[in-house]
Specification:
124 residues; extended; 2 domains; mainly alpha
Length: 124
């Protein structure tokens, strides 16, 4: 099957994962817990915006690549391209989205991170 795909497309992307996927019990527990948090927030008079602001202002959450992708890249991409999936953005969109984010980070926090490329191999 893999050889046939290679012969047809001349390109493959392989993903290797050695982590176990969550169990059905964990999945059910996650959904139950989320509903319990929602019920508690509603019972205590918190709307979504004030609750999220309160929790996130107190929680010390470290940055990860996934957090950056979901909280910064994806919303910027959606605003710029109207595409939800990062696989749907064009190669030209990636450059513009990176520039938009870098401009905002630079102006508000003094942070600029160049896009990984051959010219700045040490970044990648």
């Amino acid at each position: 099957m893999i050889i046939a795909q290679w012969e047809h497309h001349k390109w493959l992307q392989v993903t290797v994962n050695n982590e176990k996927q969550r169990s059905d019990l964990q999945n059910n527990s996650l959904h139950l817990w989320c509903q319990m948090v929602a019920d508690a927030a509603n019972e205590n008079g918190f709307d979504v915006k004030s609750f999220v602001n309160e929790v996130t202002s107190r929680a010390e959450i470290p940055w990860t690549g996934s957090v950056v992708k979901e909280l910064i890249w994806r919303p910027t991409q959606i605003a710029y391209t109207a595409e939800q999936s990062t696989t749907k953005a064009s190669t030209k969109d990636y450059v513009v989205i990176c520039d938009i984010i870098n401009k905002a980070m630079g102006e508000s926090m003094g942070i600029h991170v160049p896009w990984p490329c051959k010219r700045n191999k040490d970044v990648a």
